[in-house]
Amino acid sequence: QVQLVESGGGLVQAGGSLRLSCVASGITFSTYAMYWTRQASGKERELVARISQDGAGTWYADSVKGRFTISRDNAKKTVSLQMNSLKLEDTGIYYCHTVRLGTNYWGQGTQVTVSS
């Protein structure tokens, strides 16, 4: 059974930082590309970042480029999202997820709230 468990969300002031983590189980983690997606209240989900299986390749949405960094530790089956210079518009639920052969696996999400 695939499980993705996020942690690290919380309340932070604008300009601050948070680090999200996601621990995977039930998959051969090193063979899966991993993703972070967020959803603000009343808005559609937005893909934020992606990292390749070996960590060498990353992609970021323009809205977070230069502020967020995705990384992974295959030995610990963990993917992280370092978020710096947070803005009010970064508020939302952040999900880690992956996909294999058309099947999507999602974590339960962690709330990030950025206040002014």
Detailed description of the structure:
- The protein has 116 residues and is mostly beta strands.
- The protein is 0% helix and 54% strand.
- The protein has no helices and 11 strands.
- It has strands at 3-7, 10-13, 18-25, 34-39, 46-51, 58-60, 68-73, 78-83, 92-100, 103-106, 110-115.
- The strands form 2 sheets. Strands 2, 4, 5, 6, 9, 10 and 11 form a 7-stranded mixed sheet that branches. Strands 1-3-8-7 form a 4-stranded antiparallel sheet, with no helix packed on it.
- A hairpin with a 6-residue loop joins strand 4 (34-39) and strand 5 (46-51).
- The mean pLDDT is 97.
Number of beta-strand segments: 11
Strand residue percentage? over 45%
Regarding quaternary structure, how should these chains be classified? single chain
Q: What percent of residues adopt helix (DSSP H or I)?
A: under 10%
Distance between the termini: 40 Å
Shape: globular
Number of helical runs?
0
Task: Give a short account of the largest sheet.
Answer: 7 strands, mixed
> Which residues sit in consecutive blocks of at least 5 with pLDDT less than 50?
none
Short description:
Helix content is 0%, strand content 54%. The protein contains no helices and eleven strands.
Give short descriptive properties of this protein.
mainly beta; seven-stranded mixed β-sheet; 116 residues; globular; four-stranded antiparallel β-sheet; single chain; 0% helix
Which secondary structure elements does this structure contain, and how are they paired or packed?
Blueprint: E1 3-7, E2 10-13, E3 18-25, E4 34-39, E5 46-51, E6 58-60, E7 68-73, E8 78-83, E9 92-100, E10 103-106, E11 110-115
Parallel strand pairs: 2-11
Antiparallel strand pairs: 1-3, 3-8, 4-5, 4-9, 5-6, 7-8, 9-10, 9-11
